[in-house]
Amino acid sequence: MFIDTGDCSVNSISNRLDSCITCIEPDTDPAMVLVHLACGSDQLVARLTSRSANQLNLQVGNKVWAQIKSVAVVR
C-alpha cells in the first residue's frame, strides 16, 4: 500500500481510497510503524518504515489517499 498525503500522483495503481489516519502504533520491528486508516466503514492497516511516516509527517486525523496494488492485500 502507498500512502499519499496530497493529490494522487500519476501511476498504475487503480485502487485509490480516500482515507483518514485513525491510529499510528509501533510495529514489532522497531524500524516500522502500523498506520490504521478509516475508509468509509472499512478499516485498513499499512506497514511503513518509521522514517517514511516521519518524512510524510503522518498524524492521527490526517486525510490521505491509500493506494493499493492487489498483490499487496493480506487478509
Automatic annotation (TrEMBL):
Q: Name one Pfam family in it.
A: TOBE
Q: Which UniProt keywords apply?
A: Molybdenum
Concerning InterPro entries, the annotation shows:
Mo/tungstate-bd_C_term_dom, Mop_domain, Transp-assoc_OB_typ1
Q: Which residues form the Mop domain?
A: 10-75
Q: Which GO biological-process labels does this protein carry? A: molybdate ion transport
Protein name in the entry = Mop domain-containing protein
Organism phylogeny: Bacteria, Pseudomonadati, Pseudomonadota, Gammaproteobacteria, Oceanospirillales
